[in-house]
Amino acid sequence: MPKIIPPEVVEKKDSVPLNTVPKNKDSNPDILFKNRELYKKEANSEGIFYRRNQNLGVFNTQSIISKIRYRDAAYVDGDKIKVYLNDKIIQPEVALDGEFKGFDIRLESGINKIDFEALNEGFASPNTAEFQVFDDKGVLISASQWNLGTGYKATIVLVKE
Which of 5, 25, 96, 129 has its CB 3.0 to 4.6 Å from that of 79, i.e. a possible disulfide? Predict the structure, then answer.
């Protein structure tokens, strides 16, 4: 079972602007999704397209800190998630509601892989969420949504140069 690590409280510092061209091939979530110890196998059936892991993108940055925020993207129906940083649990259970929740993380040099695992699908399938990732100057790095079946993960990778 992965070790639970609380998010680190950090101060904002200056950083170099975002560079969105990934340079590290090892940060490709499509390759990472093949690890069955970490990612559930795709099980989409006809007409159901959320029983899979989702790649939310790979972004290069020179930021020291990143702010991660998320909320239920659709009907607030009891969706819950678990959040990992580099395969270590940092939020064991978060109930998504209509307001953004989140935390700051101190980025390590190299790959910083953030996984959001759907713990359930609430009352209305699938598990839906909107997420935002900011650099240490408050500049938006990425914003999108996920639609996940229970046990599947949405992954974003921040590569700190």
Answer: 96
